[in-house]
Amino acid sequence: MPTKLFYTSCRHTAPRTRQTTPKYLIFIAFLAITTCNFASLASAEPTSSASLPQATRTDEALPAPGNDTRLIYWSIQPPAASANTQATKSAINVLRDGLKEALAAEQSRHLLSETQFQAHVANTSTPIPLCIIGLEPCVTPKTLAFDTLNLSLIIRLQLQPVASGFEATYEIMDRRGLISRTGTVQANTARTLAFDLVRTIFDATGTLAFDSTPRGAIVEIDGKTIGVTPISQNLPVGTYTYRLVLNDYEPIDGTTEVASERASTIQHDLNRIPDPNGPPESLTSDADAAFHAAQTTSTGLFQPIAREAILPNHYGARLSYDLTFQSTTFRNARGEYGSDEYEFRGFTERGAMPDSGPLRRLVMPHGPRLELYYTGESFGLTLLSLSYLQSSPDHEAELELRNDRQPILTTVHKLQRLQFRPFQLTYRMFFGNFVPTAEAGIGINFQWIKLRGNQLSEPITLSQTESFWTAGLGLQYFITPQISAQFRYNLQSYFNDGLGTEHMLNLGVGMLFGNIFGFDAEPPGKL
Amino acid sequence: MKTNQLYPTLLVSLLTLATALIPQAAAATEPTSPVETAPSTPRAESAGLTALVEQATDAYNQADYDQARQTFIRAIQIAPQNPDLYRNLARTFFWQNDYAAATAYYDFYLRLAPANAPDLEQIHGERRLAATRAGMQVWQTPEPQRLVLQSLNDQLDEGRAYTAGGGGAWSLYQTLIRTQFAQPELAQLKKRLVRRLFDEIESQFVVPTDQPSPRLDLEDWKVQRERIEATRSLTDDEVILDALQRRLLIVQTAESLLLARYADAVQQAETAMRNNPDILFTAWFQITALLHSQQFTRALAAIDELEPRLRQNAPTLLDYAQILRAAALQKNGQHNDAATIYSELLAP
């Protein structure tokens, strides 16, 4: 059975007391800790502990080395060609031997020559990086090469003979592939130089470890990705900026200092970014009940109503209330009382009719209106519109007896009207629940005027019948496909000029019916 | 959380839970073997549609209106733009004395039917009769459906189309189906969901410029496979189906590789690469599979083929190819060549 491409974990050993361990061994131990890089990603899981997103940093003495295998590759370069003498070559060998001696306790972790490097490559069973197929975030190829070869540092030395002995210029490339430190060390002999180099280089580094809750956050130091938490990185002393990034969590930015010989751990509790489309907060098992909740409801006052729902309702009845305003004369209204016949002559002012012409008075009769109508999609026809209006004006007026033309002063004290509009054409448009309407037609007005006066023994009633044309604009609001409210303005102009024009405000409620006469068929019993 | 905010959340939650418990809804989320692909396609659904309509019509003709209603609803869910199904469902509601629902479904028919449909006059009459008998009752989309619909629209606008465990908009769509939602709007929702799913599938194949492959593990690839199968079950667009089939080859390669079926992975990678020339990262899968199956010479040849493409399309990734080359050489016993490559990679 082939091995699955999953992860290996990194083992940390128990710390020992620092006093018993040489500095460079301590350093080497922490280089090994840096091997805990991407492997921990797979096991990164949120923990149940929740706390404020603040970093905690712990500095501690470097623990002792364990069974770590991270290596340091010393690349010792010959000096410039002019100084590359046999003596210098010999000095390189002495330097290499000195390094072997200085690093005796951990010699197996140092590759001190190209030959050793090649042998290491030959003996290493290098894993195929998981990041290549997307199982981990890929670090830079350099870092990947470091990890593949299990290297923690590359120390490049260039040896030069100087007057006082030898000088070694060194540069340290860390796992990020960056030259993190350079320096120069001088000594009388190549062997002394080797010991001084070991001391100088290893004294000038510290370890920075990162952890987070939850784990698995990508760690960047000075903009370079070094791996995911938990991770430890050996770095030269100095100030570094870092960033922790984990999907669905707020990134953390910070600055920290690496001190010589110190191991620092930076711990962050990451704050989850709220997911607006996240899973529901709680569940109940009463799903079916919810599915089968009542599907039919009565509409509220402001439920949107589709035009299609209104259209099939062709037959309507509306009850409304009219309020009219008219400046009129009542001329030619006539009536009888006993054997006498009276005719309305006109309104008077202080007991006399003006010479300039008939005086007009404002009357405001009001009353209910009943309408029955048929409507199609846009056009409709009002079959019956009947209004009964009345008012109680108090206007001086003059009558005359038809037989002797004798004027009689009276007061108009009641007005009653019955208006009948047999045919009105209507037009409507749909804007959601709102339906503006326009209408026009003709009608006939029957009116009765009651007058009383000192010269009359009893109040008398004059009547008058006149036809008119009418036009109006209105706005309907459908509460349901059947029920609507309507407000409209009508203008009614009498063919007899003397009566003037009526302005009507109308407010009412209408009801529409679909198959009121039972003409529509039921669906078939079989499809 | 306020009580009035809690209610809709609870309702959508319990609907979602119920959906998860229903085999029909969960079908697309069942983990399946990478090589066993038998998703239900709209073509299969079309064949099922004919049978469903026949079944519903038989039930109607035998006055089994409850069965007819349920079956017509299922048929509408498959073909939400077929007007006849709405007419027949309206008639079913009519005979169940649910005149308000009948009126609403007659309206759906009238909205979808062609202007020259021969039965328009008849349906107008039937609708008037239903509306008259409904009186003051007006059918409205049931509250559970409305809530799920709203959540689905929100998810389609801003959320995820498919998440691990069959969540996201896909889950809400399944919940909506479960609530017996059968309205013309379903067609548009389906289209939007397909588009979002397809976008999400494609976004999974997008690789950051400094990375060789998309950051997906086995679980992610399984989700991707489910996402593809979910999309296939919703569309009959030949172009999309062809693209999905080609993308599925990549998913199969990845799954074989991560399940250590290296021989399968090598074979599938070749097919995937041939069918997805726009996807570069499949080559990394192929090389990795070759290395794991000890075919080092073929792996080196594959790296040779990959490098010119990298030079042209992703020069920043060339050093990763060198890492693999070094690994191949090393495993092939060419240690010094491998060491030389590593030395070059580690040069300052």
Give structural notes.
The complex is a heterodimer of chains A (527) and B (348). Chain A has 527 residues and is mostly beta strands. In chain A, helix 2 packs across helix 5 (190-203). Chain A has helices at 23-33, 86-102, 114-123, 141-148, 190-203, 287-291, 307-310, and strands spanning 56-61, 71-77, 110-111, 151-162, 165-173, 179-187, 205-213, 218-221, 224-228, 231-236, 238-245, 252-258, 262-269, 296-298, 315-328, 334-337, 340-347, 361-363, 366-375, 379-391, 395-401, 407-428, 434-452, 460-478, 483-494, 501-513. The termini of chain B are far apart. Mean pLDDT of chain B is 87; it is low at 1-7 and 17-41. Chains A and B meet through helix 3, helix 4, strand 4, helix 6 and strand 14 of A and helix 1, helix 3, helix 5, helix 6 and helix 7 of B.
Task: Write a short abstract of this structure.
The complex is a heterodimer of chains A (527) and B (348). Chain A is mainly β.
